[in-house]
Queue: 3 jobs
Job 1
Amino acid sequence: MEIPTPGLAFEQPIYELEARLQQLLRPENHRPGVEEEIRKLRRELAETMKHIYDHLSPWETVQVARHKDRPHSGDYLALVFDEFVELHGDRKFGDDRAVVCGFAKLDQRKVMVIGHEKGRTYKERTACYFGCAHPEGYRKALQKMRLAAKFDLPIICFIDTPGAYPGIGAEERGQAWAIAENMYEMSRLATPIICVIIGEGGSGGALGIGVGDRVAVLQHSWYSVISPEGCAGILWKSHEYAARAAGALRFTAKDLLDFGVIDTVLQEPLGGAHRDPHQMATRLKVYLVKTLRELSALDRTQLLQERYEKFRRMGVFLEDTAPTTADPTPT
Amino acid sequence: MKRQKRGVPEGLWQRCPGCQEIIFRKEAERRLGVCPECDYHFYVSARERIRQVLDEGTFEEWDMQLRPTDPLEFVDKKRYAERLVEEQARTGLTDAALTGTGMIRARRVAFGVTDSAFIMGSMGSVVGERLTRLIERSTAEQLPLIIISGSGGGARMHEGILSLMQMAKVSAALARFDSAGGLFISVLTNPTMGGVAASFAALGDFVFAEPRALIGFAGPRTIKATLRIELPKGFQTSEFLLEHGYIDRIVPRSKLKSEIARTIDYCGK
């Protein structure tokens, strides 16, 4: 019997049904009535999958977002776009592999794509520090985004990082400064920007390429002020409380929508994007094409005004004892 | 600090966290909270900072009616709603930032300060909103903007993603202030970390730091745990960042007011 490895614990019922289905599908097991059995099993499998994925806990969502087969930026670059021309280097220090940048064609539209990359093989994964960018990664992104604004190309950002890299070199080269400057400049780059969280939206490392006119998330992604492990380590003094922290932080797609932090949740195929990257890519493409058309209709002044107001509204506090959200100031 | 030596009235002496010397509290206070032995810069509260930097009696507080709330219904070892009440009672502040206007050597400025005693000086919705309103008002009234950061906590975990978004909100307001030609002096004090360092604190036209402050993105413990190595001596201090090109000047507390005034003067504001 084939056992998919390494599986997710909560997907165990799915693996068992899949294994039984494999058994029945073998030619030597063919006997009268087997088709009916297979049909029933397939239906059961789909229902089990739906049940599990409709009721993912926040911690299980994190595990789906980190699934080893979950599509990364590189996969969407291949599946969504007709062409991708990679552009390297930040012109200051180096070429961070945790961020990929380049021209791409979305249908007929020319765009600039920026994306975190986690890598697939062990070699790739270590080369890009598991998707944790250094300052040169954020500076590369900004340099390419400035080019995009100069040459009137819309920008698409794919966010997928556990967080910005915590290391000696990263601090020496001004990680805080790099992230701050990206938000600062992205808020005023005069070209449409669409950000999509495709897996993990880890803190400032995500926000460093996360300021745009529209922000969408794939259904089973998370986007948070801190990783569940980081939060557990600080507030509960142990990483073992990560599942509890995941619940407390309210970072699933539904929460993000409720808090007005994102505009759209893109539904994933049954059982998560990793089960059908092609279908996920198709849905993503439809969203990007439609949104780009909407944003391109706005003149630049209006675009920048609306982008400013979008982030200006964020936050929940009390004022004169009535709960309010931040009001955009009249201009 | 709890056990006092017999015969020494509480509060007359204190131990310096920098050199461990016992020093006369009055003497440290006279030196604006700086150790007379080793020049260690002690924590000073937001109110005390206002007294030190602004001309006497000129501070007028803005947006004090804003109050934090608990949108996530966040519970760790304690409910966030309870934590807020306790922190407010303990510090006398409504949240970690005070904003307003005042004079520095007879020049009117917009002034903000974060207090690291209030939930590590972390930025949630109220801190983000107060600072954004401060920046917008200094844009409208063309005032020089001074923000003194003391925030070990970065973006406040208890308000989740809403805290993270304050980084974007404040940074966007600063970009508009910049486009309008505004002057922003950012002063980093011990400690300035995480989401505060990676937003408004880093975005000054001029970035000053007090001596030997801890400043950085990732906390030293996080880095140590991730890399499993010893960190170099002086890592993430003001002096380290000056050497790497991220800070304009290291300014001792006694000179802070005059250095700010001089910079405003040079920039013709």
Job 2
Amino acid sequence: MTAQQNAPDLRPLGVDGVLVRFARTLTQEANARALSFRDMVLEAGVKGVTEVASSLVSVRIGFDPELTNRHTVTQTIQALIAEHKTPDPKPKRLWRIPAAFGPDHAPQLEEAAALAGLTPAQAVAEIEAATTHVIAIGFAPGQPYLGMLPGHWDIPRQTSLTESLPRGALITAVRQLIIWAADAPTGWRHIGQTAFRVYLPETSQPFAFTPGDAVQFVAVSDAEFKDIKQNPDSNGGATCEVLR
Amino acid sequence: MAEAAFTVAFAGPLVTLQDAGRPGHMRFGVPQSGAMDRLAFDAANAALGNKSGQTGIEISLGGLVLQCTHGAATVAIAGGDFTVQLGTQKTRSWTILTVQKGERLSITAGKVGSWAYLAFAGRITAPEWLGSQATHATSGFGGGALQSGQTIILSDTAVREDRLGDIPKPDFQTSRPIRVVTGPQDQHFAKETVTQFLTDSFAVSDAFDRMGMRLKGPELPLAGALSIPSEPIVRGSVQVSGDGVPTVLLADHQTTGGYPKIATVISPDIDRLVQHRAGQSVRFADITSAQAVAEARSYAQQKAAYLAEVSVARGTLAQRLMRENLSHGCAFD
């Protein structure tokens, strides 16, 4: 940690947890700090800590109140924060994932593009051009938060929720994309469709992504997408290249 | 070892296998899951002398009807005030019965409560996911939701004559407002909005499942917080969506969420909150984080003492009669 960086904010979250918040807004740097701090706490093996869960810019450290207490856990966290250094942000893996953006697969593309000040074609081109990173896994099993898109993609969530979306839906809000894994309501906008499964229960590595992975999207036609969907072994036609 | 088989004659929606859940997987997007009302679930297992957290069936207001097609097993039913029928014998939840081959056990919504638990003297054969049979309802992973027509196989079953009868209900839960600790994103609400959340009355809406309970009541405006970074969610987080509607996140909660969380329901009060039904009113009251820890400790102690009491077998009818006689001393004079 350098002197310029603000010390993270510590707050209770549940009677058995401490939330360590590195920033109030999402930045690549705050995200890298949160992810590496999560790994640091996991590796430290703190007594009584039962759960270390990171999201975009914060980490929740859950503990067993019978084995430890908030005061002791907070002191340990503060000591770890003092030693914490931001790691190398270069991705270890690069995913390329086909996505369809035709009208049947992207009901809110036009709306989201307009909010970003773009035509739908420009929006798709920008998504294809972006190299996003898995900045968190959360909400549903294996579901990635991918960021960050250019600044004009800072689109707020919807005020009301979309009740349900197909799995593999590509959705967006706040300069991020998500490949949707859940059968649940969301306030993000549906702008494309992949056939990618983020969670593969039948494999030894059931969670496809690791935080830090780089992800690019490749636009395919509706006809190509249909073929991809019909090949269940390809996981949506995605490739994964090991970079380092 | 004895075995038993039950055919599911009818299962309503949200009737699932549950155990103590799978903690430690939040960073993969996987919540703990497990029983919605952990006190009632633990009581059902304790009343049979089962190991804590042994897999049982969580029954929703949709109800469950089982037909025993093979063997026999003693079962415990706890939680809410559900109607229980075994053959022609009608009773209510918080009871222990033995179901024999050919008998039909039905557990349906009674007057009060949203969830009941059916524990077996025996082990349910069901798939595990990440080391637990708890069903994560949104993905369907784990032991799974029960479907009409399905057969449940039990191993190591037992008939426990010494445990039949009523299960004492817990009496240490309060009826006061549901206690919360404000935050961790209450800064996104005007002070008056937080006060309104803590003083006004809300009603449970129909949107109530294992993931969460959406409330009806005054709108809680977000002061423009539709673009904050998604942060971790816990069981009990009260998240307010963009339309100003609060939702209490429950056993199968999403692990992260970007709408601001105005407060967190303290863990001891979640068991009684989830037993509310659609239309019932709910009020919230805030306590400090230190008070919440003290309340959680005290609840854990009272719960442990209660479960210890419930887990003592009362003896067979013959033994109980004998004990009555002995305690009166002169019964044979």
Job 3
Amino acid sequence: MTDTKPDETLSQNAIEGTSWSTLRESKGISLEEIAQQTNIAMRKLEALEQKDFESLGTETFALGYIRRYAKILNVDPQIFIETYKASRPEGDESEIPAGKIPGRESFSMSEKPRKIPLAAISAIIFVVWIGVMWLLPGDEAPESSKPAAPEALEQQPVAQSDDATVPTPVVAPVVTTVVSVEKKPESLEQSQVLEQESETETAGAPEIVENNPLAADAGSAISSNTVTAGTSEVSQAPVSNDPLSESSAGEDVIVMAFTDDCWVEIKDAQGTVIFAQLQTKEDNLQIFGQAPFKVMLGNARAATVSLNGALVSTAPSGSQKTLRLTLSN
Amino acid sequence: MFKRLRGMFSNDLSIDLGTANTLIYVRDRGIVLDEPSVVAIRNQNGQKSVEAVGLAAKRMLGRTPGNITAIRPLKDGVIADFQVTEKMLQHFIRKVHEHSWFQPSPRVLVCVPCLSTEVEKRAIRESALGAGAREVRLIEEPMAAAIGAGLKVEEAAGSMVVDIGGGTTEIAIISLNGVVLSDSVRIGGDRFDEAIVNYVRRKYGSVIGDATAERIKQEIGCAYAGSEVLEIDVRGRNLAEGVPKSFTLNSDEILEALQEPLAGIVQSIKSALELSPPELASDIAESGLVLTGGGALLRDLDRLLSEETGLPVVVAEDPLTCVARGGGRAMELMDKYNIDLVY
């Protein structure tokens, strides 16, 4: 691009040491000649020689003038350009030809790429969450249907945080009936249904989930206790599936058998929900606790209930399916 | 359908779809692709397939057997072969996203000549969409060139840009983020090469290829009569004897060969200056005009234009990539300040 090769004898140090005008004069070139050749205004060339780069205008023009000036002096323009860049306050930023617009705040050019990892991370989290939600119910189901070990005497609170797995019982209008039944120990027929109350409620957090087919046989072996009306003192409601150990503990036992699907919720004397689960056809259930029990049956016609061996009537009035009753000795 | 999702894994691209070279600028990565706009097509029993694209295809130009044709799908700055352009863009976009897992679907800004017709613009838009872009924006080449050259286009001051590309020369006066006046002449690097081929045929009775003409232009080509004289040895096929022959060309001869296209560019610049509003003309007289594009690398072209117009003429830094860089910069500015640089 140059007429001749740049003057090799002029090192950068030599140029930096002398002023540009001295260099030009040593080559016998006047400023007017340069102005004539390049059409650059005299005052701009003077400013350039005095290294007053601010008055040269934008960097594009300043660098352009410097290149043309260096070309006429037959000097490598890079030496002059380095001097110019060193004098710029912005330093590195001025090196970017498509640099920032002065007067406007600078901004990161990597704005867009940053979004990609964020999006990827959120997508991965979402997929993991979906996976967990999908797998969790699958893990819980076998646990709840698994027969409990016979030696489990102590209360077994089951963490059942996922309400989605517990079906909501059928809501029924309030039905209150009081049935007096004669007490006859050793007989399965006699029991007293003191109160049947129906409230709108949903499944609470059950403490015991138990489903033992052996419980039905065990229920017949339990000696009957008196059934009394009213509420009694609060006591812990341990539940076990071992009928032998339970009968000796002197607690009350409810035995239920089902001929169809039925939602069952049982509260003990303290009002604690000790059982809340859907029972399916031919399920048998045995619950130990402190009477009186508040029992809610979603499909009362499908259930046979006995308290301490005494059979309790579970026929709801009219066409009702749901039955709420209180069982006490 | 999944363009948006794929777009999250794609970069915003600024494409300088030039007649001679295609450049792609990616945010915070700079110029990532600079390849000739050439596609080699293999024709096998009537079935066409892409044999090579870019540099590999350019090497095939003029050296292909019967079943392969090396095509330059753009002519005079606009699309001449729609399908091949689409294939070429597709190849380039994929090449830029080589490490991506997904098929890329970037937002794309393409530079178009300022006097291109609606049909030409539509062809460019459609081919970019066909190549996988999810959103296509167009920008006038001189505007991108001015931004790429570092001119303060947002100021209320006139800036004049002359972008000499492969197919066209774009001349524009820009102020307040807009093109005040523009002109586009279909003279560029290709016309220079063509002029050299014609001159050699006339003067030496020998035929040289486009690639040789381009090499001559780059090595000894000059635009100003007072420049240093350089020489080059070239070989061409002698028309009379029909055998390859070697001869020496000097830069004065090339200057003579280039007279016609250079005069065309000078004339267009003068016309633009004549039409410019006086206030902007005064700004341009003060600071000068800026040369960008590959043509700006022609030796002493700035000197010729300076003498012809009486204005200071400066060559932008890295003139070849100005348009692509400016396009990328324009995209950032549009996102940041919501300004309208695109039509």
